[in-house]
Amino acid sequence: MAEAVIRLEGVRKAYPGAGGEDVEVLHGIDLGLDRGEFVALMGPSGSGKSTLLNLVGLLDRPTGGRILIAGADTTALDEAAITQLRGKRIGFVFQYHYLIPAFTAIENVMMPMLLARGRPDEAMRKRAAALLAQVGLTQWENNKVNFLSGGQQQRVAIARALAMNPALVLADEPTGNLDTKSADGVFSVMREVNRAEGTAFLFVTHNPTLAARCDRLVQLVDGRIVTPAAAPQPALAAASP
Amino acid sequence: MKSWMPFEVIAALRFLGEGRMQTTFIIVGASIGVAVVVFMSAILTGMQANIIRRSLLSQPHIVIQPAEEVARPLRDPRDEAPTVQKRTQRLLSIDQWQAHSQVIRDMPGVDVVTPTVAGPAFALRGDANRSVSLTGIDPDDFVRIVPLPDKIVAGTWRLTSTDVLIGTELATDLGAAVGDKMRLATPNGAALTLTITGIFDLGSKGVNERNVYVLLRTAQDLLNLTGGASNLDVTVKDLWQAENIAQRINARVGLEADSWIRTNNQLFIALNAQTISNTALRIAVAICVALGIASVLVVSVVQKSREIGILRAMGASRLQVMNVFLIQGGIVGLVGSIFGSAIAAAFLKAWEVMLKNPDGTPLFQLHFEPKLAVWAAIIATLTGLAAAVTPARRAARLDPVVAIRG
What is the rounded CA–CA span in Å between residue B229 and residue B92? Predict the structure, then answer.
């Protein structure tokens, strides 16, 4: 079996509810991603996808169970260590791309490296330029990101997510706001990176066509994984909203 | 991105540059605040220096006199409760004044010590007679306390044992000019005829009417204090320390020592009140500037919460996020202080050009000291940093999950 980049064991997450009782959103999730795996995560609204993604991305902590990164338990780590681990191991691509508008495309891609190392240097710039070339944006690298189209911004976000050479990229509906052609382009870029670099992807989507092109499909319904499918099943995918 | 700048500074500059309107407003606000403080401080310092210079021109900072003579009843006053009358105070010489003046001269903070003999006298010339305050001085030391040579308006600065210096008003009253003779008589019957060698103007009518300067020895003869000194006049290096030094002198040599602070109490209180109200005003302005900076940064944190969340998701530590906002506050303060000092310097220049004495000299001397600008920069930067603490902590506390979702 290939090495797991991340493993969730019986992960639960509850939020304080209105009546003083906690409301559990995730009820014991077991999920693992192997190196180089490209996994689609689907589920209706309110099924707990975002919560799950926040936990996998170490942005939030579970109320039960364990999250292991490369075999190491993260439960006992403190805030600073979690932040560092997140910066090094995990890349994020969000639906609304969330670039930092005060910076240019290449500077946005350099940002995770800058945060880790403190000061910019030539090596960072070279790496960022190479990543932008990989997503086909070389000619836009010195533009402020607000001047780029939605698809271009999302590709900058992918380049940024790859900056620290993470083992895992979490993509929260990265194609949700794009037209079919741009969505296809963005998805292809991710798939290429996945094949070339061996980066694992957890890809949240509502688009069954794109989900069908992933290695594996995970269905989340009411806080439980219902189909730990080994391969995408078009019938099931088509049934989801 | 300049490679020598750390992430926090780069991000702070970019964020400030992005909110152009907000940044402009707050820097203008900080500049005006700094300009007001710097301008006010320079005016106040100049004005106080001017007032003090004028008021203290003709007097020493500390006057030392023999201890007051007290009546000592032979019987215990508790026995029969007698009325003990206060003694009359004779004009006395300070016992051991030469030794004492040496001791005082060596005390820290003391600048000049000079003996004088001061007492009442009559200035007589023809039919005119005026009561005057006679002061015998040691010219070499005394000029370091009262710059008499600069104030001579007729004649020369020369004092031998038969010379006398009088003020302009007295000269008018006596109808005397330089080179004329006048007679000085004292209540104990001594009298001398002296030559007027110089007429001075110390800027105050009363002083010009009453002050008469002769050589120490001449005054000793006239006031029957041979070899003595009725006062020791002292100047100190720091005016505001005069009272403390006076008390130390009193404790050390057991003589009455009165500082200008005590003898010009009203003036001192007025100056002090001015300083206090000025300080209060400065603090108020600093608080206003700080609140302005804080409110702009609070808004900025709210506006940028999503970006802060992203930065946190990408591995920015809480400290890094906090520093970005602290540095923004510091930059606003620093830039504001540079503009503010420049504005203040321009206004001070205009003040100097526009407000003049009738003779064309500036109303009072203003010094825009570079030190003041440096202080303004340091304090404004610290104020900016302090103002940014709350917003910065708020930014650092943002939960990335909430920030990104919101």
Answer: 8
